[in-house]
Amino acid sequence: MLMSGYHYMGQRLPFRTVYLHGTVRDTKHRKMSKSLGNGIDPLDVVKLFGADALRWTLIAGSSLGADVILDPNDLETAFAPGRNFANKLWNIAQFVLGQLPNSVPAIDAIDRRSLTLADRWILSRAQAVIREATASLEQFRLDEAAKRCFEFVWNELADWYVEAVKPRLDDPAAKAVLAYCLDLSLRLLQPIVPFISEELWQKLPGRTATDLLVTAAWPAPRPQLDDPRADQEFGRVKTAIEHIRSIRAEYRVALKTRLKATIVARGNDKATTFDGERDTIVRLAQLESLALDGVPQGVGAHAVFGDGSEVVVALEGAVDVRIECERLSGELNRLEKQLGSLATRLSSESFVSRAPQEVVAKEREKEKAWRDQRDVLAAKLKSLGCS
Fold it and tell me: Is residue 284 very low, low, confident or very high in pLDDT (cuts 50, 70, 90)?
């Protein structure tokens, strides 16, 4: 169990005992105990990584009825999840705090018309994390609350919104959004990592010497900030960037090489969505240029997403197309031979009738997976213009 000061849903609880769902065991799945000599002294962990790293590792890893597996001989690895999250939270908070003036307008005072798609998206995601984390805590699903907060802070806020908003850090609207998102993140995380959240929260603009996060109000959702359309549209922007990054990695294009890309919007996806976040896509996908009109020309790699929209990355000049064609052709030929052998085996009445049914089923699943891989390779060869 873990103990700390705690404030939740308007209730001021100066001392609270939090019981973990499962049992703490070592890597050999033995229950930790002093008599077995496999226990971990929590004070040793606190000295090495801090109390919040200890709390995070145990709470986030304690799913209902499951054991928390820790290695008493390798505390570095055992408590890496808590240490890494504490470091990430501290670093992203310090970055945000460094952009904020002494006074930041409340989010309700910001004209909605001044908000970009990225602003509206993160504010909408913030309302979702408030509802989901609160519901998990009310059901004593402490691990689910921790993981949802992790996803919001590490992924949605740090990896996406902060990166998207960097060119606009002098915009009052962007500052208000950053301050609001950091404030609610720390309020939601207080029951799990109370020390680092308290330290950071007191650094927010407008705090006085007597303000304490442990006695602050629990965040409440603001329905006026819910924006399903922004969720969908910025989700498409994220997907486009992810596809371009995947293509770059797949074709082993050097990071310093700037690529040309085209997005063809189809279905309910609109070109204006991508045009509004053009700078974000170009910067985060490391592009030289982004086209949103017409059909892409020349050799390129394709990826389909959303409502049939397509992103095409021009590879001519970025990779040696001849060598890439040879590599892909070799993979396709190897896969064709494997499929031929597998098809022969599955067409054999002797194998199908004598082998256990689960073995036959797995072989059929393998055949389907290989056929899908073959189709992907054939599509790549076609997009590269390989003869």
Answer: very high
For 32-92, the DSSP string reads: P-TTTT----HHHHHHHH-HHHHHHHHHHT--TT--EEE-TT-HHHHTHHHHHHHHHHHHH
Q: Flag whether the pTM goes above 0.85.
A: no
For the chain, the 3-state helix, strand and coil shares in percent, each to the nearest 5, are 60, 10, 30
In tens, the pLDDT along 196-222 reads 999 999 999 989 888 999 999 999 999
pLDDT in tens, 90-130: 999 999 999 999 999 999 999 999 999 999 999 999 999 99
Instruction: Tell me the C-alpha distance between 309 and 262, whole Å.
Output: 11
Structure-model confidence comparison of residues 176 and 9, the more confident one: 176
> In whole angstroms, what is the distance from residue 197 CA to residue 86 CA?
9
Query: In the chain, count of helices (H) and strands (E)?
Result: 15, 8
Rounded to whole angstroms, how far apart are CA atoms 96 and 20?
32
- Please give the full DSSP string across 5-49, using - where no structure is assigned: EEEETTEEEEEEEE--SS-EEETTSPBP-TTTT----HHHHHHHH
Which residues, 6+ apart, have CB-to-CB distance to 277 below 8 Å?
Answer: 116, 117, 118, 164, 234, 237
At 330, is the secondary structure helix, strand, or coil?
Answer: helix
Residue 6 pairs in a beta bridge with 13
What are the residues whose beta carbons fall under 8 Å from the beta carbon of 35, sequence distance 6 or more? none
Residue identified by tokens 């606009």 is: 168
Label residue 145 exposed, middle or buried (CB < 10 Å: 0-12, 13-18, 19+): buried
